Amino acid sequence: MSETRRTPEQIRQRVREQGWDVVSVTAQAGIPPHSYTAGLALGGLHAFIVFGFSPDLARPVLSDLAQRVRDGEHFPTNVGLEDVLPGMPVVLLDVPRVEADHYLAAARGCAPTNLRALQIVWPDGRDLFPWQDGYDESFRGRQIVLHPFARTGGRR
Question: Does residue 24 have a pLDDT over 90?
Fold first, then answer.
């Protein structure tokens, strides 16, 4: 996957200076654009990833989450959160390790051991999530949901 216009050394430099960086990846062959944090694992924290956002939208959202977890805030998974995106609920889902290794390549390079990640999953225009009945199927191509229960339409 192609990270947009930054070298691994530039990413590592930003991680050294700030504690994290936001890496954006362009859309490719059926994979929507996505952005993720790199460097948080050095502090024992989860990385974050979001699909379907432009880099200009993803960067402030991911940077806010990164700063909040560095400040000690903990985020629950598998429940609706109202304070991540303005005016829109999201759900954070654990990302399976194999998916994290694949989609968060630069973060993997900044992780001392196993990379742990949380995906920000956003709803359709009616605030329904991909695993809920009635979800607008036209949104499916805009974000890949990495957690297996959500891909199969199962519920937790």
Answer: yes
